[in-house]
Each structure stands twice: as structure tokens, then as C-alpha cells.
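@channel anyone free to eyeball this complex?
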Amino acid sequence: MSGRVVVVGSLNLDLVVSLDRMPDSGETVFGTAFEQHAGGKGLNQAVAAARLGIPVGMIGALGDDTAGEFLRSVMVDEGIDHAGVAAMPGTSGTAIIEVDTTGANRIVVISGANEKVTGEQVTAALGALGDVAVVLTQGEVPDDAVVAAMEAGRALGAITILNPAPARDYPSSIYEHCDYVIPNEHEAALITGLPTHTTADATAAARAIVRLGAGCVIVTRGSKGTSWATRSTTGTSGVFAVRAIDTVAAGDAFCGGLAAALAQGRTMTDALRFASATGALATTVAGAVPSLPRRSDVDALLASRD
Ligand code: ADP
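replying in thread with the prediction:
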């Protein structure tokens, strides 16, 4: 049995419009398809961990609209405890995504209820959830909520993980409350002001974030794997070679996978391998939530490459 993974983060309804070409300003064009999906980095990572067979609780906020009802039903279907997801007056987080035939996209995000998550709410909701092994958060809710997630998680004796995505300035005081920080190359470059293109550069950036106070920093580098650093050592991990067709949510799968593995008491090295397999499988299926793999698929990939 493992303790619970609690994800503090965003929930969005993704409205995806396919079209032949983007309209000019003032122009109307006809789209060719329309789909609605559950999204938001918080919900993606919660679903990732839940599909790996770990008990998951979500803390965040939804509006009092149909999007909110739909997103709550997704958590029910995925077996995620949603008692910590507050219902707020107004709109739920919504992303309007236009994709043309070349694959180019334009995205407008309405933060909606995600913007209303407070540190006080996070601390109270974490306290109400029992058996918290890991607290995982990202940057799509306000700083106050992100900092509270890491501080309150620490106070409860949980392993704390920050995925500093999207790339933005985070309060520098946050890192000392993080056992793990998982940026991609772009986010690591923004946090440190250092280049991250080569393995040596990415390792140096990971070390710089450790110097800000984090326990272990894992810079994810897409098909190049990861560069990581702790206070005493550095290293790299490779990728599982797969037929990648769409890398959307690879980072979310990786973070959910790492949280799930750490909640089960795996070592950092084992957890890194488990997370890499989860991230790799997410690239073999199109979309975000639909691409998040099940535990049996991750175990099969790990067993095939022993
Ligand atoms: P993000 O989506 O946040 O930019 P990355 O693209 O760095 O994150 O991917 C996260 C992790 O997913 C990588 O470190 C790797 O383990 C795995 N991954 C990503 N792309 C591939 C790929 N093409 N093949 C195999 N694994 C991949």
C-alpha cells in the first residue's frame, strides 16, 4: 500500500477547434472539427498518478458552470478524491485552442476559478486529507497557493514536488520547501538565467536550483532524457525509445509518474526510471489526458527493458 499523492493545481476545460487556416483580425472562418477535453496541468498530473494505481486527492477550484460539472465528473471517473476542489461562483478554467492543418496553434487561457485558489484553502484542505505521502504542485494557480502547498506538505512530513510550469518567476523562497523540483529545459533556463542546451549546461542549471534550497532538481529534456542534481551528486537518465507521435503532456506524465513512484517508497533512481517510462508512453498516443498510460502499460515497458 502506498500513501496518497495530493495534487494542488489547475483544472481546465480545453476547447479544441481545428481549422484550415487561422482567421485574420475581423475575419470569420469555418472550423473543421471541435472537441472538448479535460486539461490543466494540475488535473493532467492527478490523472497520471491515479492511472498508476495510487490514491490521489486534488486541491483546486472550479466555477459553477457546465465546465465545472464536467471536470468534477472526470475526477469521479478517474477515482480522484475531489473534496479539496472548491466550488466558486463564476467560470471554470478554460483554454481555447485553435490548431491549423500545419499543426500551428493559438491558445487563449481563461484562468477563471484557478486564479481564486488561496494558500489558506490549500493548507486547510491538505490538513483534512489523511495519509499524504507526496504533495505535487505546478504554476497554474497563484503563488500563494503554490507556496502553501510546499510549506504545508513539508509540515505534514510529505515529499514535496514543484513542477515550475509554465515558465514564470516563482518566489525564490519556495525552493527551500521543495524536496524535488522538475523543470523542463526552458523553465530551468528562466529560473536560473543559465543556458540549458547541453547536458553539462542542464546539469549546471539543476545545481543552481539546488543552491536555491531544493533537495533534488530534475531537468527534463524531452527525447534527450534528464539531467539531475542533488546537494551531493549529479547525474543523467536516458529515455525509453518509443515511437513518439505527440509529446503533449509528456512532462505531466513524468511528474505524475515520479510522484506515484515516490509515494510507493521507491528510491530516487527507481522513481526516475518509472517516471521516464510514464513520460515515454504518453508520447505514443495523441492528446493530453487520453495519452496518460495505465499502470500495466508502464510495468510492461519497464519489464521489457530490464
Ligand atoms: P515537457 O512536456 O514539460 O516539455 P519533456 O518534453 O522534457 O517535458 O518530457 C518529459 C519526459 O518525458 C522526458 O524527460 C522523457 O523522460 C519523456 N519523453 C519526452 N519526449 C520523449 C520521447 N520523444 N521519447 C521518449 N521519452 C520522452
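from a first look: The two ends are 24 Å apart (CA to CA).
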